[in-house]
## 1
Amino acid sequence: ETIPSSNFLRTIVEDDLKSGKHASIVTRFPPEPNGYLHIGHAKSICLNFGLARDFGGRCHLRFDDTNPAKEEQEYIESIKESVRWLGFDWGQNLYHASDYFEQLYQWAEYLILQEKAYVEDLTAAEMRAYRGTLTEPGIESPYRSRSTDENLALFRRMKSGEFPDGARVLRAKIDMSSPNLSLRDPVLYRIIHAPHPHVGNSWCIYPMYDFAHGQSDAIEGITHSICTLEFESHRPLYEWFLDTLPVPARPRQYEFARLNLTYTVMSKRKLHELVSQKIVNGWDDPRLPTLMGLRRRGFTPESIRTFCDRIGVGRSDSWIEMSVLEECVREDLNERAPRALAVLRPLKVIVDNYPEGQVEEFEAANHPQNPELGNRTINFSREIFIEQDDFSENPPKGFFRMTPGNEVRLRYAYIVRCTGVVKDEAGAVVEVHCEYDPASRGGSAADGRKIKGTIHWVSAQYAVDAEVRLFDRLFSDPNPDRGEIDYKQFLNPLSIEVLSGCKLEPNLRDLDPETRVQFERQGYFRLDPQDSVIDQLVFNRVVTLKDTWSK
Ligand code: ATP
Ligand code: MG
Ligand code: MG
């Protein structure tokens, strides 16, 4: 059986529907509620919900909540919110592995009665030592030959809370010499005295992922149970449970390659650490690859879905460049983001020959290609702000912006010529003077002379102030997660830059918080949904206009 490297799951589903193996398909997205979802989860969400959508099936949202020690209601809520935000809807199909705890328990007793499970008294360390290695078979536990009655009695005592955490486990009796380590008497149940976010204090023994997952799939009638490649070696165990237990249906497990993205980390342990050690500001920090972080930063759900389509689904592990994700949001926003003028690092410019107190209105298109986005008016006045780095007193070769003696075009307005500067005691330029050409209204010279540079500006009189947050990669190494060295060594100390006193065109005061705008020449921005308030605007840069990261 050869498996094509891309779209192989769609092919499988198509074939299963064509052959009549399934009348309709059922998939599931099964997060463990032990953290926030990240862009890797988006790949799985788009895949599972996308298959159901495209082939007229359904996709369940199932919380794989088998370890109450790490799971919380906060995570359950954020996961639901993230899936909805990405644009998917599970409808009535919300499930929890914990919904099946009673049935799973009954199946555990069933295995004991079939002499296919036993209560283990070895410690975790002893079990590990007995387990063997890839090249050496394991050794059978002395407790493996316990009688059915003794196993049943002990397992019931485990359930009734007689033993402390870790005192005993229930194991399947399969094959300690199997070349597949997953089949060497895997643990089925462990004791955890902790309240569960969904079922409270009803249980103190909890099934392992492997014992819960396939059976949950069977109970829900999942046809295609899609997981990442690490679970490939668990597939024989998944099938052993389905073969051995009286389950109501026969799901099949398929594996695909997980998403690995450069310059970030996606393991939940590491994300937890970054949040709890306050290296970032919460799970929705715009520098994190969490869906809540990407949303807050300004990524659109469409751009993330495009990304998931573009990277494809295959069976070989690969790395995706962060720039691919950024390009997806850039393309999306280029098409729909209205344009605006904003000066991030302001330098005052005085147009000396422009009448004091005079104000002129210029019409500007909100989008250069899309007239449906309409026009807006921009006020011009004698004092304006430009970017500090659009002025140079001693320009390098090829600098076509504002320099003493030279002409430059102010976007939408006039051609101006710089006539001089005012400096502070330290010699820094604090004010630039210039004169405008009244015959260049709109930006073209009446005599047709060419002006090489065009810069953006805002009227000092009308500008609104804002804080603007610029983000860079959270890590300065493409693969901080590689393991030999603590990933925190690779944190980029300049991953956030906060600019205050930025000057924005006043139309931005009324910006819809969900709208992303292009600040001309600066990138795409949105209001920060947590920190921005009226009269104290805070903008996040979603992405720069051009790829400045790769190479
Ligand atoms: P971690 O190992 O960091 O705890 P996880 O994979 O255990 O993450 P789950 O909540 O169990 O996290 O994941 C839910 C689903 O999302 C699983 O089906 C898993 O295969 C999938 N998933 C998780 N990470 C990725 C990834 N990087 N790429 C693709 N799918 C992923
Ligand atoms: Mg995990
Ligand atoms: Mg998991």
## 2
Amino acid sequence: SSPLPSHSPRRRPDYIPNRISDPNYVRIFDTTLRDGEQSPGATLTSKEKLDIARQLAKLGVDIIEAGFPAASKDDFEAVKTIAETVGNTVDENGYVPVICGLSRCNKKDIETAWEAVKYAKRPRIHTFIATSDIHLKYKLKKSKEEVIEIARNMVRFARSLRCEDVEFSPEDAGRSEREYLYEILGEVIKAGATTLNIPDTVGITLPSEFGQLIADIKTNTRGIQNVISSTHCQNDLGLSTANTLSGAHSGARQVEVTINGIGERAGNASLEEVRSENLLKCYEFFVMAIKCRGDHVLGGLFTGIDTRHIVMTSKMVEEYTGMQTQPHKAIDGMLKHKGTYEIMSPEEIGLQRSNEAGIVLGKLSGRHALRDRLNELGYVLDDGQLSNLFWRFKAVAEQKKRVTDADLIALVSDEVFQP
Ligand code: KIV
């Protein structure tokens, strides 16, 4: 049987803020425009944010976290514009994404977030406060009881603004004391929270631990069956996708992710370190893992993402943020028989099978791959010609890592070979 997954998308269930209408549906919460933009150097203009939001809607994202409205006037305006436009554009299937604004747990932030998102058909306020001992002691300088009181009052306040959809995050949940988490989460549910997001803020947990954390929260928190549980996994140990999958396996039905895995990191790491550290929350990986293995291993989980738009969205974010993604690896095996190494097809994520579109020739590419690509470009070589060219191609590949179509054409033109 073919290892290739089916292309037929499953129907997206109706959106109801505090109810899961299909128990296997995993909502995609995209925070590229909020957490992603917090990557050093990844600042986006309002126009770029709007373009990305439109593209995210096309991709089929359920919730777009458009920004942190209290952070700056520009961010406020960008979120408001996205709420007014993308948040009111119903697609051909009758779907419109939720537009979300982040806020700390204080009235001013929450009011500002509401002022920005309220124009959307489906507005959401996402409010957070830290719950780990270390954050309570050094950052908030507050007792556990005080933090519960603030969280409860602020979720109630957000609901009082007539916002039906309120998400709460206990920041640094990965290092928070369990009993305390169950207690604060139970209190915010009573106050009206509709989604509980569990952030592994410092990326410290292992997949088995994170899965267990979600499972324990689901077992021990009062009222949790009435709300959506969510994951938000950082990549400090390179485990964010694995942790997110583990969380979904344990019952989380929303996952927070960014395009190309861009995202925030505390501290003063250099840009290079931050970039490599923060290839986090990659939903290209998460969504494709769910698509490839969801049915068999993960109990039938599925998302509403139209994977054919992944590459386009990734390229747009790469260009606008200036943060490069990892180039593709050599894929010669794929050319002999698609199933040999390929568990998903390039077309499925919106790539064409062409060199420019992303199938990169490099120093590990073989003669077969080189001949194929040259044929696609219109150059038909006999064995002797190919042999000559192959060694020159290898020399270029040693220096350049990625050999583009332009390089190949230059190489062929140097020889007598003409199309
Ligand atoms: O990493 C984190 O804890 C966050 C929260 C605001 C969700 O970004």
